[in-house]
Design brief:
With about 220 residues, the chain is α+β, with helices and mostly antiparallel strands. The protein has two domains: about 90 residues, Potassium Channel Kv1.1, Chain A; about 110 residues, no CATH class. Helix 2 crosses helix 3 and helix 6 crosses helix 8. The radius of gyration is 25 Å and the shape is elongated. InterPro entries: SKP1/BTB/POZ_sf.
Length: about 220
């Protein structure tokens, strides 16, 4: 327990913190933390063994990922900096930290999506498709109305939505229990306001994204 000299956990056991150390009748110590995820920390402190997960895998079992994230958060609580550093190689930890860094904007997107979600239609049809209003418009020189794939409703995002933040948005929606598929929708047309034979004439292109949300997992 005192391996991480600069950490909170070591300080507690060395009596350097004003935190009571509860000793049970059998001589064991009681820590108010999740036992299953803390076991991963004990194994690391004992012999440097990291959790047995594929560090390059973007698809792990949800239970393994949950356990890994709990261990990560517990390590933060106890200031186990070396363990936290070594956990950075795991894809779920990388995604979690990126989601944290973009939390404000992703949560903003998520609220807009959930406000537009008709849960009654979702339950009846098993899915609900939402068009995120075009995030890139190459030209606005005519009054063409873009028609994308069939959707149930549209949402005009009030902030610019990068592809990476869209991915994080989908991840956030999955975290709260929805199955989400994201596809890009495009509308390309020739603007009638340009003269025929104009070599500078360009296609007017509009792109959006369709989130197809399925019933809670």
């Amino acid at each position: 327990m005192t391996q991480a000299k600069a950490g909170v956990l070591a300080d507690i056991f060395l009596g350097k913190r004003n935190v009571p150390l509860h000793v049970l009748k059998d001589g064991s110590f009681l820590l108010d933390t999740d036992g299953e995820s803390f076991k991963l920390i004990i194994e690391y402190l004992h012999d440097g063994r990291l959790p047995d997960m594929d560090v390059d895998s973007t698809e792990g079992s949800s239970k393994c990922e949950e356990l890994l994230l709990k261990s990560f958060q517990t390590a933060r609580k106890y200031g186990l900096h070396k363990y936290l550093h070594d956990l950075d190689q795991y894809v779920p930890i990388q995604r979690f930290k990126e989601l944290e860094a973009n939390k404000a904007i992703v949560e903003h997107y998520a609220r807009e999506i959930l406000l537009a979600l008709n849960k009654t239609d979702l339950e009846q049809n098993g899915k609900f498709a939402i068009l995120l209003r075009p995030t890139l418009i190459s030209s606005e020189c005519c009054a063409h109305f873009c028609r994308f794939a069939s959707v149930d409703t549209g949402v005009h995002l009030t902030r610019y939505c990068s592809l990476r933040n869209l991915s994080l948005l989908c991840q956030r929606l999955r975290c709260i229990g929805y199955s989400v598929a994201e596809t890009q929708a495009s509308c390309v047309f020739r603007c009638s306001t340009h003269k025929e034979g104009d070599t500078a004439r360009k296609n007017c292109t509009s792109r959006g994204h369709v989130l197809t949300i399925c019933c809670k997992i």
